[in-house]
Structures are given as C-alpha cells and as structure tokens.
C-alpha cells in the first residue's frame, strides 16, 4: 500500500486549469522532491493532498484513507498529514511550548502533561529543546521554521508535506532547517518536499518529480533527473536554477 496515492488529479480555478492530470504513488518512507518553475502547480498539488484545495477531479489517498471520498471524516484524515509552509505561521502570543502543544490539545485532546512531553521530545528532534519558553519574535526565521516542523511532528503524522520550507530564510539559516529535514528522512519519514534546493534534492530525495504546466513532465532518481534530464523543459529549468 502506498503512503500517498494520487490518481487523475485535476484542479481548476475558474477557467484556469492548474493541475492537468497528476498520477503519483509515494511509498512509505520515500522522500520525493518536487521541482519546477513558479506557477507550475506545485503548491496546488500539495494543497490538494491535504484538501486545503478540493480537487476538481481524481482521487487522493493518504495512509490508506481516500480523502476525496465524500463520506470520509476529513478532519481525522487530515490529522495524519503534517504540512510545513514557506511562512511559518506561529502564534505570536504563544511561546514555543504553547505553539507546539495547542493543536495537540485542541485537535487530539491530549492533556497538558502529555502534550508537553510530546512537544519537548519533538523540539529536541529539531534542536530547540532550550527554546521552550521563547516567543516567536525572539527566534530567527530558521528557528521559527524548526518550531513549525516540531509542531507538525507532534501530531504524529503519517506523511510530511513541505512547501518551499527554506525559501523565506536568510541563506545562512537554510542549512539548519535542511539538516532537520535530512534527519527526518534518515528516520524513514515519508516526505514530499517542494524545493529549489537542488543539492538537498540530489542528496536526500529518493525520487525527483519535475512539474511544468500542471503535469509531471518527468520523474526518477535524482542522479538521472537532475544530472541527465530527458526533457528539454527540465533542462531549461535546471539551467536556470543550478
Ligand atoms: P507553484 O507552487 O508551482 O508556483 P501554484 O500551485 O501556486 O504554483 O499555482 C499554479 C497556478 O495556479 C498559478 O497560475 C496560480 O496563480 C494559480 N492559483 C493558485 N491558487 C489559486 C487560487 N486559489 N485561485 C486562483 N488561481 C490560483
Ligand atoms: Mg508554490
């Protein structure tokens, strides 16, 4: 059984067809990097995987649950999907511990002690065990993004989706966040990562998916797709970003 199964996925906004038939199977423990030009539909694809956007056609299943089934408990299914965005969206009025416990308590119904125990364990994973009492404004962008990753991990997701998690960061802060993601990959987390970090894709991804114009143009092991792409569109894109 695949961790994520996407079949015949289409998404239109009005007359704009943004996803034009995506089929992707992602195995448990697989790390897939999605690359492609701005506007090619990468974010829309991730947003359809956790139903932040409703697909216009096709099916999406995560961890054996078909999210596009009208009878599914979508809130329950969505809890199994961790999402990390370019903008970290921490609650400014809560300290780090509060940010990592609030959804555990409100959504999963964990008591305070349990939520804090899980939060501390996950803050340790992202290297921020010493920041539990800090407020977001006192943290660097890289630290805030690592708190956002800990917050997602604290919900015990079956899969983690990352949408350009380092694009908003100063260059010197990118490495710490990528390091945390690399460690997660090494632990066997199933991950879909939209990124322009080609060295990360090359070293960490099991598979690279190149999208353009709402379709998957080509995919395969990073050595092949990045080092010797088959399609002209992939070559043109890589020539710009490498
Ligand atoms: P990428 O992440 O690859 O840059 P997106 O998935 O964000 O691409 O966007 C793909 C296309 O869909 C773009 O043309 C964008 O303007 C359009 N789009 C995305 N979200 C919406 C929306 N909510 N309403 C209308 N158009 C949208
Ligand atoms: Mg995007």
Automatic annotation (TrEMBL):
<keyword id="KW-0067">ATP-binding</keyword>
<dbReference type="InterPro" id="IPR017871">
    <property type="entry name" value="ABC_transporter-like_CS"/>
</dbReference>
<comment type="similarity">
    <text>Belongs to the ABC transporter superfamily.</text>
</comment>
<protein>
    <recommendedName>
        <fullName>ABC-type polar-amino-acid transporter</fullName>
        <ecNumber>7.4.2.1</ecNumber>
    </recommendedName>
</protein>
<dbReference type="InterPro" id="IPR003439">
    <property type="entry name" value="ABC_transporter-like_ATP-bd"/>
</dbReference>
<dbReference type="InterPro" id="IPR027417">
    <property type="entry name" value="P-loop_NTPase"/>
</dbReference>
<dbReference type="GO" id="GO:0015426">
    <property type="term" value="F:ATPase-coupled polar amino acid-transporter activity"/>
</dbReference>
<dbReference type="GO" id="GO:0016887">
    <property type="term" value="F:ATP hydrolysis activity"/>
</dbReference>
<keyword id="KW-0029">Amino-acid transport</keyword>
<keyword id="KW-0472">Membrane</keyword>
<keyword id="KW-1003">Cell membrane</keyword>
<keyword id="KW-0813">Transport</keyword>
<feature type="domain" description="ABC transporter">
    <location>
        <begin position="4"/>
        <end position="238"/>
    </location>
</feature>
<dbReference type="GO" id="GO:0005886">
    <property type="term" value="C:plasma membrane"/>
</dbReference>
<dbReference type="InterPro" id="IPR003593">
    <property type="entry name" value="AAA+_ATPase"/>
</dbReference>
<dbReference type="InterPro" id="IPR050086">
    <property type="entry name" value="MetN_ABC_transporter-like"/>
</dbReference>
<keyword id="KW-0547">Nucleotide-binding</keyword>
<dbReference type="InterPro" id="IPR030679">
    <property type="entry name" value="ABC_ATPase_HisP-typ"/>
</dbReference>
<dbReference type="GO" id="GO:0005524">
    <property type="term" value="F:ATP binding"/>
</dbReference>
<dbReference type="Pfam" id="PF00005">
    <property type="entry name" value="ABC_tran"/>
</dbReference>
